[in-house]
Amino acid sequence: MSQQNLESLDVEAIREEFPILEREFDGQQVVYLDNAATTQTPDPVVDAMSDYYRESNANVHRGIHHLSQEASVAYEEAHDRVADFIGAAGREEIVFTKNTTESENLIAYSWGLNELGPGDEVVLTEMEHHASLVTWQQIAKRTGANVEYIRVDETGRLDMDHARDLIGDDTALVSAVHVSNTLGTVNPVGELTALAHEHGALSFIDGAQAVPNRPVDVSEIDADFYAFSGHKMAGPTGIGVLYGKQSLLEELEPYLYGGGMIRKVTFEDSTWGELPWKFEPGTPPIAEAVGLHAAIDWLEDLGMERVQAHEEELAAYAYDQLAAEGDVEIYGPEGGADRGGLVSFNLEGVHAHDLTSILNDHTVAVRAGDHCTQPLHDKLGVPASTRASFYVYNTREEIDKLIDALDDARALFA
Ligand SMILES: Cc1ncc(COP(=O)(O)O)c(C=O)c1O
């Protein structure tokens, strides 16, 4: 991407909507590069939630009174907004959960526990987040199914020949991360889904690091299920999304039971209500849905292509700056169209936790650890890495601050 694209987002104006970015620690302004963990929330999103609590707060499910009607409409419209944003057919295909992890578990329990059996295969990738990897491992244990992993090659990309070998007639599900939260790799999820379908399997795509950062159209990917979290896309914590094709969701058993999801209950049995409410028992995250709606409006005002261009530019810049240091090992593909907006790395001779702590002394906020991809780190041969991840308010100057701080780490440890 060109510098022109980067400048097409008015980053200065964007930053004004994030008072938190003005915070200082020890007289230094925070440099927030931990966006893959959670993004910051702009004023219009905070305002939308605050207005909701000030003016419309009530429980949903269409109570008779005005406030409940208003809250219900806001909650339902949030589903419509999400559906429109990701190219789903309608609100029936959008289930609100707590986060991506719960969306994964919903399908694992509703579909996996009921449909998998001995001899069935669940095909994951070696770069799956624990949200998917741990969940399917446990479901496989309980059902007798096997879990297989598509190899990650030395460039940090999926070995698609291996994928073609692995995905076969025993495959019941292919579950893949759209953008790796450790390697930054953008995976060919449409191709993986097509492979799954060729063999009569379903596809589940973990879009936690994709939907916040690039245009995503689930109908183009043809994914059967797709998951993401509000708090990684300028929205609030406490809300996640499970997209599912309506025909599949209609067939699935609910994963949680309770009020608000039923059609008829007798002392003997119960039947389920319409989609998506069938999967949303109890009082749902109403204010959070309002916030997610506002976050999508806000992101679409920026333009998702420009958001993507901005992140690709920053990731490429960070990659090049880190690579030029000579003593930094970077994981995942070089900057470009198949890298999302994050870079994980290690500085020679310095543990990722120590480096991250030194960066924190410079108020540069990054993350150290295995980023919930322990098996991938084992494969990389390191216990941990440091991850810098970018969003629409980040600048090249902030990356320069990170690079400058590396000298302190060298002086102390190398
Ligand atoms: C790729 C990926 N999948 C799943 C998750 C889990 O998201 P959440 O913690 O919102 O459930 C994350 C969060 O870091 C992620 O990066």
* CATH topology category name of the largest domain: Aspartate Aminotransferase, domain 2
Number of E-type strands: 17
In the CATH hierarchy, what is the class of the largest domain?
Alpha Beta
Gross morphology is globular
Question: Could you list the spans in which at least 5 consecutive residues all have pLDDT below 50?
Answer: 1-6
Bound molecules: pyridoxal-5'-phosphate
For the record, give the distance between the C-alpha atoms at the N and C termini, rounded to a whole number.
35 Å
Q: For the largest beta sheet, what order do the strands appear in spatially?
A: 4-10-9-8-7-5-6
Tell me the major beta sheet: 7 strands, mixed
- Helix tally equals 15
Radius of gyration using CA atoms only: 22 Å
Report strand %. Answer: 15-25%
Instruction: Work out the count of structural domains.
Output: 2
- Helix content estimate: 40-55%
What is the arithmetic mean of pLDDT? 96
Structural class, by secondary structure, is alpha/beta
CATH architecture descriptor name of the largest domain:
3-Layer(aba) Sandwich
Going by CATH, the homologous superfamily of the largest domain would be: Type I PLP-dependent aspartate aminotransferase-like (Major domain)
